[in-house]
Amino acid sequence: xxxxxxxxxxxxxxxxxxxxxxxxxxxxxxxxxxxxxxxxxxxxxxxxxxxxxxxxxxxxxxxxxxxxxxxxxxxxxxxxxxxxxxxxxxxxxxxxxxxxxxxxxxxxxxxxxxxxxxxxxxxxxxxxxxxxxxxxxxxxxxxxxxxxxxxxxxxxxxxxxxxxxxxxxxxxxxxxxxxxxxxxxxxxxxxxxxxxxxxxxxxxxxxxxxxxxxxxxxxxxxxxxxxxxxxxxxxxxxxxxxxxxxxxxxxxxxxxxxxxxxx
Length: 263
Ligand SMILES: N[C@H](CCC[C@H](N)C(=O)O)C(=O)O
Hints:
lysine biosynthesis; 2 domains; diaminopimelate epimerase activity; binds 2,6-diaminopimelic acid; isomerase; Diaminopimelate epimerase; amino-acid biosynthesis; alpha+beta
C-alpha cells in the first residue's frame, strides 16, 4: 500500500490516492511514531462527482474529521505535483463542503497554497469548568469545531492539562480542537493547539482561522487584514473578511514516499 508523507508546518499526514475501507484502523496504526510511520493521521484523495477531487481526513485516533486546513494545502500539492491535474485553481470536496484552492509553484512543484476556508461561525464566549479551573473559550466552527482561549503568555498555555481536557469537554458533544492564543498586536497572534483526535500538533490550519475569527470578534485583531499566525511549526497568513470568510495562505511540503506491507 503506497502512502506519501507530507506536512503543512509540521502538521504531518499520510496521503493515499483512492478510498481506504479500513482508514480508521490504519490511521491509528500508521500514525504511531514508533510502531507505525508516524503522523497526525491519514488523508485520502479520490475523484469527485461534484468537484475536482475529494478528500477525507482521519485523525491519529482513527476518528474522521470534516476538514483539515494544513491537509487540504497538501492535497493541492499532491494532485498537481503527481500530475493528476495541471490546473492551479482547484475545488476540493470535503465533508464540510467545497473549498477553493489557488496553487503557487516553483518549477513544476507546488510550494504555497491559498485556500478559501469558507465562513467561520463565531459563537458567544462561554466560561467552562475544568479540573484545572475555569476557562473562557470562544467556540468557532470552521467546518470543524474549535474552542479558542486567549492567554497572556503562550509559553504558559496549559496544553497537556486544560487543552487535553477541553478535547472531550461535555459542552462539545462531538469533541473539540482547543487553541490557546496570545495576541501580539492587531496583525499578529501566537497560537498553540491540542487537536481533537491527535493531541498537540505543530500547526492547525482550521484552528488558525478559528483563532483569528475569535480575535476579530473580540476586536483584538483587524478584519480584512492579513494576520500572521505564529505556530510551533511556522507561520500562516489568515485574512478574515467582513462576511466571516477566512482566507488561509501557507506552505505544503512532501517528505517521502512510503510502501506499507499489507498484512
Ligand atoms: N483534528 C481536527 C482535524 C484536523 C485539523 C487540522 N490538522 C487542520 O490543519 O485544520 C478535527 O478533529 O477537527
